[in-house]
Amino acid sequence: MHTLHDPAADELTGDTFIRAARAVLVDANKVLRERTGLAVNPFMVLRALSEAPHGRMTMNSLAKESETPRSRLAHTVAKLRGSGHLTTEENDGHDRRFRYAVITEKGRATVTEASAVYAEFLRTHVTACLSPAEVDLLRLVSRGLKSPTSSGRT
């Protein structure tokens, strides 16, 4: 773990990273919306569902797998349900607390198309800008930054 030696340099590094990440996210949203009608967050939700057994997940699992806060997930699921990309269903057992999201055929078709667009975007806007060593370093750094709270670093 990095120990802070120069707070000003560390702040500049963090600020540079956040600005770069935001710029990539803005561009990814623009490209995905223009070519598929989906922004990154709904794409991540559909992708998580498409990879789940039977295309079905509880809302808690979907929030975790798509890395979407529960409050935002409810809005995203409502929009995707309204557009026919997924359906929701109640648990058929005795415990009614669990609601499931289920991807539809339209959702599967859209996520297949969006996955190709997303992969192309990452190749042309992220990895093509970096050397192979920098791509490896970005992967390593991204894994380290992915969940600072779960690793006890906050």
Automatic annotation (TrEMBL):
A GO term for molecular function: DNA binding
Gene Ontology biological process terms, A to Z: response to stress
Keywords: DNA-binding
UniProt entry tagged with the keyword Calcium: no
InterPro entries per record: HTH_MarR-typ, MarR/SlyA-like, WH-like_DNA-bd_sf, WH_DNA-bd_sf
Keyword match DNA-binding: yes
Limits of the HTH marR-type domain: 10-147
Name of the protein in its database record: DNA-binding transcriptional regulator, MarR family
Organism: Actinacidiphila alni
